[in-house]
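Running co-folding for protoporphyrin IX containing FE.
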Amino acid sequence: MADGVWELFGSLMSPGGANDPYPLYAKLRAHGPLVEAQPGMLIATSYATVDEVLRDPALGVEPAPGALERSILATNPPDHTRMRRPIAAAFTPRRIGGLRSAIQAQATSLLDGLPGNSADLMAEFAYQLPVGVICELLGVPHKDRTWFRPIAQDVAAALEFNMTPETVENYASASELLLSYFASLVELKTSTPEDDLISDLAKSEALTPAELLRNLALLLIAGFETTTNLIGNGVMALLRHPDQLARLKAQPELTPAFIEEFLRYDPPVQVTSRVALQPTVVNGQQIEAGTYVVALIGSANRDEARFPGADRFDPDRPDNTPISFGAGAHFCLGAALARMEGQVAFPLLLERLDGLRLESEPVRRDRLVLRGYETLPVTWNDSSSGTAPRR
Ligand code: HEM
């Protein structure tokens, strides 16, 4: 076993580590592209090995408990293939493309609604926009957003590695609430179908009723916990690099390249994992069935061999294909939607919030897997008086 790998992994799981994982990733990469943390547990640290791990059909996902049990994220082929097909089909380009104007309208109305010239950007915008969009896509009534926010957060906490007895308990009760919520919504949409994803999926016979509810819970959670953090982490990357903020504001056509760099530089999903369903070979190394493999997405995106100057925020880097939406069979179904939300949100934010800057230091959430901010207090120039606010 390589000395210190287990300790480094332990540090990553600690609140301090989750706060700034990148130096720890660098130390882990120095141990090699695929390192043993303890017998039966490997960590993929480089871009090439993370990609290889996620694409290897011999490496499957582990079953999840509660609301995400038997969701596509927690199922292997052939069930995964059977369930993913109708869900992917419901994400038609027509439906996704059709959301652009709704995203624009929601983002505009959120910015219109900001009182004064300071706000917690997470609560007032970065959370609100993706949750509104996923509600629109699924056909979830907007009025329920406030109700399910804490519930969805408790379910999302199950994706973390360092669960406590308290988070396990919260997860169990939140799972039940979310599933029974979707059960009544499916009943409603079955009797009165609308043009939304729940109505479409309710008609599909490929999913059992229990599978349908669990995949709806997954879509709800995957649909905003992540995109919320793309917005928050992206805004912070701009605030820490004011020259790049000014550039993007002046040239909004650069937004797609900036989005890829936000995704690479500080990805909303940092880690995932697999288990060897049968013996396989990764990075030329024989792996026994049952071996647990951690795939460090956040580390892969900072791999110097793939991204020269990887620790630098650089939207101009050529061939920028971060692994932030995963790879292989479980590649993110919402990638196009998340990118579109970013492409609408960033130019609008910079245009509307002139002179955007931090009001006070932001607070990170104590999470490694879903990396983002709890609060992001910002201020901007007061357009009504035409002067910059006093600090
Ligand atoms: C920036 C935003 C997002 C990021 C960074 C992200 C990231 C990811 C990653 C890394 C995976 C693969 C996990 C693994 O292989 O273990 C994944 C899967 C998934 N994502 Fe996303 N996601 C984002 C937005 C969304 C949105 C908006 C939706 C839904 C509308 C969504 C739905 C899904 C689903 C359903 C899966 C599971 C696919 C499967 O298991 O076959 N994601 N996402």
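Result summary
The domain at 5-379 is CATH 1.10.630.10 (Cytochrome p450).
The radius of gyration is 21 Å.
Job closed.
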